[in-house]
Amino acid sequence: MRYYKSFILFSLLALVFVACDTDDLEKDIDALKDRVASVEAQVQRLNDEMNILRVALDGNKTITDYSIDGDTYTLTLSNGETLTLTQGEVGGNYPSIDISDDGYWVIAGSKTEWRAKAENGEDATITPQFKIEANSDADGKKYWKVSYDNGSTWDFLENGLAEGVNENTPLINRVEVKDGYFNIMIGDQVYQIPVVKGLECVINIPEGTTDGLWSVAGGGQSSFTVKVNLADGDLVRVNAPADWNAKVSEYSAGTTEVTVTVTPPSTPSECTIRVEVTHGVNTATDQIKAKTISDSYWAEYQAGFDIKIGDVVINKFDYPDAKLLQDGETVPATGVYFIADGATVKKSGPVTDLVLIAERKDNKYSSKISTTGNISLGNLAEGIGFLCKGVSLSSEGTSSVYWFNLSGNIIERLYFDHCRIEFMVDKNFSNFNNAKSGIKNLLIESCHIAIPAQQAKEDRTALFLRYDQGQYGNMTIRNNVFYCTTENKAVSLTPLMTTAKATVLDGIDVCIENNTLINTLLNHDNSTSGLMKIPYRKGWKMKNNLVWYDVALIANKNATASFLSELGSMETFDIEDISNNKVFTTIEDNPLIWGIFRDNKVFEDNVIIPELTTPFVDGTLVDTEGKYTLKPEYQGIGATIE
Q1: pTM, to two decimals
Q2: First-last CA distance in the chain
């Protein structure tokens, strides 16, 4: 009986301690939620204030309407944009923000290279954005980060500690609407945005606009519309360079939409078209950047346009010494070169920070590079790497079983963008096998990769990217067509493989999606091979790929075919990241068992059942050229190369 009482007492004490622990846990969770909410409020408020300040500084917009809900202002601008601003104290430690006497942003005490104020009639286009993250270089303390390119890249502020009490006051001290203006107080400075009811100037984004840039045909007329709300005496003007010949349609009081027609020059040109609506002393403006469509990368380079290859931008300002190579010329090891249309240039030996671009943009691969012997890739410290765009790459032969390798350096980039890569018979494209070498960033995008049937041994596997030794980072293989160029044949192919001696770095991104493989099949043996022979890691993308074959190439019948060789040790996955890979064949007695991973026991739905049909519109498939048109029901899988 005494034992029973002791047991009850012990149980009650345990429950008390559990209850205390639970209460403490709930308090900790509530405190954490409060801290998260506080951080979000700080970030939101600072970014809202930066947007308001952007409008005040550019001086080209008015407020057509506003409302107040408690401490929150909602502003509708003359270009249709809506901004909010909440007054009131928000805890936290803000970075200092100021504008230098010559009009540049001063962030956390450091003057930046970015203008805050308009200059020579051009708006200041950079509005810093902010967020808070833990800084591993500062013992995990939370620091402010800033972006000057709309969130594409972020940098920690050296003096941007976000923890602790406020050392800097919020950017905007006070706002008020008075005498027809929305007044913004920053320190002792007052900035004003006119409040003009009904004054509007909103460009309706025209077709052909990508990333804020409107592309139009040179020499012909193009137009866009502008939303307005005109009263008696209102004026509408359009400002553009004289050679763009921009005109506005007729209008009168009550007009709600006008049309702007432009006739740009026939040569490559880029400009900003600005539309203004003036009502009394107030003017509302909107603008759009425009460029003429050109079929020549070389002409665009000469005109000062940007040419993008992955994350690299090539233009004559940053790379002023680019040359146009003609037929028969030799490609140097270093530099930026355009290959003339219809020309075949030669390349042999090492490559160091080399960029090769086709003269024309028609994607017919008429600018060709022919190599002799092995090409060894290397680059200077922090260099560009080896980049190709729009060219055809082939080889006159090599004594080695592979074509490309690496020197003793870790190169920054290996990029092929809209290229045609022609394999040699019984040869591999690459064998990266230097233990001191590596590739930080790989991009194979929108390429035609042509592989002839093997002659020495029919089921010999051709290797595209073989990572044998060295260190390797981010990999993107996207929107490519791999195909066998030999009629009525198939070829065994591994587009990507890593060996046990290669080091695939931690924390990298791997994206293998929307590729098409036509009569290019992996070697169906009993090893751990896969189409992509790389141990999968959580978060990598391997989806929307399409395999089609009407020629059986079977090294070991009834074996397993797969997209990926294996699930990495102790790794997990999100099925959405490795989904929608499709296999099609017209071989009804197909003996292959397809899976996402080589091991069909990895998870219950690992098996991919081939569809016994063709995914292509009848008569469109030219398998030896990698050309086709997908049926409507299969859009979104495989490659689409324009």
Answers
A1: 0.73
A2: 87
